[in-house]
Design a protein that fits this description.
By secondary structure, this protein is of the alpha/beta class. It has an 8-stranded mixed β-sheet, with helices on both faces. Strands 1-14 form a two-stranded antiparallel sheet.
């Protein structure tokens, strides 16, 4: 059988390459580039995928060309599949986060984690480097959405110590299939059903550790999935981080809208900008007739947006397909234009609310 003449260059689109050369998916997986099977691959070149995962592109291109010639995945050296990260304790090159955006509601059950995931997916499709800090310590959902279960790697810092004289722990974030970096309390143990029975001050301390003692890459965006309420955890994030602004999530229900308005008032009191409002579970479109039903009642999105002095970023419909992908940990396979719309409108809102041109150093110098 003659070799397949699929073009392999840094600018080759990942999804198109895998379609022409199926063995390319095996090569990409061997390098830890699971994005060859996710929705991001439709928008990403081999070069962009390698950069997002912190890998050198030359070994990837060489392996792809060998696979094209032989029809099988060649051996991959360990050093070629190891992402480039800042060395622990090398604090001359600090982690710098260009933009930090908390996703907040005040009300539980409105889908903040799903909205956070969809924004992250939309930003990744624009080739930004994205991280998610799951600040919902007692009810984390982010790892489940992304199919992550392996506990976070924790290593002692060779430079800094705690007040008790012990090495300060440094956390390496988990990395999703499309190179979204994730830190969550649900990745602190082997059992995802373990309950974190912690009081408010401890929760606030853990959140601080999640952005101060994590070896984040130099991200373009850090999204913070906040828990319900307006107390310790949200206050810790809103008062401790130099945020660009907050995304508010609501749903078309008077009770939910009232509680979200409380969150908006808190944000205004802290003199932080609200970048936009997302109404989740806004309506349902019947697959057979195309008829649109407002199951939870009429939309309150515009009313909340007026109070928040912010635009409506999106009204997200009820969609069983999204629920299935979320439950199965395959949310990155969601290929819905609304992810792109969310990212585009958020970027426009951030541009309209510029903050001082400084980056956030998440680890202090030793």
């Amino acid at each position: 059988m003659p070799p397949i003449e699929a073009e392999i260059t840094p600018q080759t689109n990942i999804k198109e390459l895998v379609a022409q050369l199926p063995v390319a998916a095996g090569v990409m997986n061997a390098f830890g580039l699971g994005c060859s099977g996710c929705g991001v691959s439709k928008y990403e070149t081999v070069e962009e995928g390698a950069r997002a995962h912190g890998l050198r592109i030359e070994p990837i291109l060489a392996a792809l060309r060998t696979a094209r010639a032989t029809g099988s995945v060649p051996p991959i050296a360990d050093e070629d599949r190891r992402p480039a990260r800042r060395a622990p304790g090398n604090f001359t090159g600090l982690a710098k986060i260009a933009h930090t955006v908390p996703i907040m509601s005040g009300k539980g059950g409105v889908g903040k984690s799903l909205v956070t995931a969809m924004i992250a997916i939309g930003l990744r499709r624009r080739h930004y480097r994205v991280g998610i800090l799951d600040a919902d310590i007692t009810g984390p959902s982010i790892p489940k959405l992304f199919g992550l279960r392996e506990p976070l790697a924790i290593a002692p810092d060779p430079v800094k110590t705690t007040a008790q004289g012990r090495p300060q722990p440094l956390i390496t974030p988990a990395v999703s299939r499309s190179a979204i970096e994730i830190v969550s309390s649900n990745l602190l143990s082997d059992d995802e059903d373990t309950a974190m029975i912690w009081r408010g001050p401890i929760v606030a301390g853990v959140i601080r550790q999640f952005y101060e003692q994590v070896l984040w890459s130099e991200l373009d965006f850090l999204l913070v999935d906040l828990p319900p309420g307006t107390s310790d955890a949200p206050l810790t994030v809103l008062q401790s981080l130099s945020i660009d602004g907050v995304v508010l999530v609501t749903m078309p229900q008077a009770l939910a809208t009232m509680i979200v308005r409380k969150a908006a008032n808190l944000i205004h009191q802290l003199k932080k900008p609200i970048l936009g409002v997302v109404e989740n579970m806004s309506y349902f479109v019947a697959g057979d007739t195309g008829a649109r039903y407002e199951i939870f009642g009429p939309s309150y999105a515009q009313r909340v947006a007026e109070l928040a002095h912010a635009p409506v970023l999106a009204r997200i419909p009820i969609d069983p397909a999204k629920a299935t992908l979320a439950d199965e940990g395959r949310i990155e396979q969601l290929d819905d234009p609304i992810c792109n719309d969310l990212a585009e409108r958020l970027l426009a809102s951030i541009a309209a609310h510029p903050k001082p041109k400084e980056t956030i150093s998440l680890v202090e110098k030793g």
